[in-house]
Predict the 3D structure of the following.
Amino acid sequence: MGTPKESVVHGSTARPQDLPSVDQLLRLAGPVALLATHGHTLVVKEARALLDALRAQALAGTLETVAVQHEALGNALAARVQARLAPRMRAVLNLTGTVIHTNLGRALLADAALQRLLAVMTSPNNLEYDLATGSRGDRDSLVEELLCTITGAEAATVVNNNAAAVLLTIAALAREREVIVSRGELVEIGGAFRMPDVMASAGARMVEVGTTNRTHPQDYERAINANTALVMKVHTSNYAVRGFTAAVDEATLAGIAHARGVPLATDLGSGSLVDLAHYGLPREPLPQEMLAAGCDVVTFSGDKLLGGPQAGLIVGSREAVGRIRKFPMKRALRMSKLPLAALEATLSLYLRPERLAQDLPTLRLLTRPAEAIREMAEALLPAVQAAVSPRFTVQVVPLLGQIGSGSLPVERLPSAGLALAPAGTSKKGLGTALDALATALRGLPLPVIGRIAEDRLLLDLRCLEDSGPFVAQLPLLKERLS
Ligand SMILES: *Cc1c(COP(=O)(O)O)cnc(C)c1O
């Protein structure tokens, strides 16, 4: 088997018969090296796909002769193999101004959590093994004590995410019975999680009380009957009811529910474990406050303000958490060892609150002073201007970001960044120019995600702690824009 001869081609477009067979293609020098690196399965599959695509072009009369030359074919095959192996889930730069961005993976893991993952995922571990007794252990016990220490709860358990925590809590405590909830708290959060549907999925009958804007203690008192299994409070994490409003706080509601022998559960959604007001940030209710107010169960997310992996945390009384933990659905919703290890490491950071604003990326980003962000924007301005001129002009601008992920929906975070505006474009061409710029930014090896507002593309630099990787891509951006 010799190396196939370079095809003799006629004219500027190639014909199907100018293409090599799969076997011939794989005998070329480049493909031989690809086979040695990646093996037969992947390379042959991509070679077939490449030749099919080229044949279709040839039949359509659109295949250039240069494309069938040996080196070009080898390069095209290498590119296909590389593209097939390239990860679909990739790192991006979040310059949207929303710190906990649900579409961009929410909280960033702390170094401590990453180190822990490396340390315990590449070897066997004691996930369900009690090292003291040598007998079977319980995976929840790995984080229960930490959660109880931090929140003051009697007991705690964890599941896959907070949606699962809410579903499980309602199912375990109120299946085939009634759950009372205020009409002002029937939230829908992204991804089709709607409180009425969750109640139905959990097999509970939802009893709505009050109105959209006002719910009073008597509304709950009147609704509780022998069939009531649970009173539920839901934190309105992604909207605010403003104006003529009234809601019953947890302490009052706990008194009402407990006097009638009914437990109270609160879904906090985000559930920050530290008082954000200490850091000059808008305040979110804490799970520890909800427990102190008398809630029997509090549920919250692991990857929102807590700053850890995806997880649903359930803290509360020994009695209620015990019933939740024993409910059969718990087994289907349990956490896997990967996020569990990251969660334990993240929770440990809360034992050293003085260091939290450095150690926990979410809090570090949220507490970055607007002034430091503006200085970074000033420093980046000349390089960014050079990359996008003459098509766009760049300015340093004050911006308002947000915490995100259903936390504190109406509060804004003073921030700063760069505003890129199309230069000398008619009003009509603005949208097209901005879309082209946004597409070019997203197309970079480390995609840059900004936001378009008021005829400008805004890059909020709050989440850009290290500008190096961003600056390194500017020459490529310039090339692609010209
Ligand atoms: C975010 C949120 C949830 C769901 O939490 P996940 O961890 O995303 O499953 C449930 N309830 C409220 C109020 C929320 O804000």
In short: The longest helix spans residues 40-59. The chain has three domains: 16-85, 93-101+366-481, 111-359. The chain has a mean pLDDT of 95. The domain at 111-359 is CATH 3.40.640.10 (Aspartate Aminotransferase; domain 2).
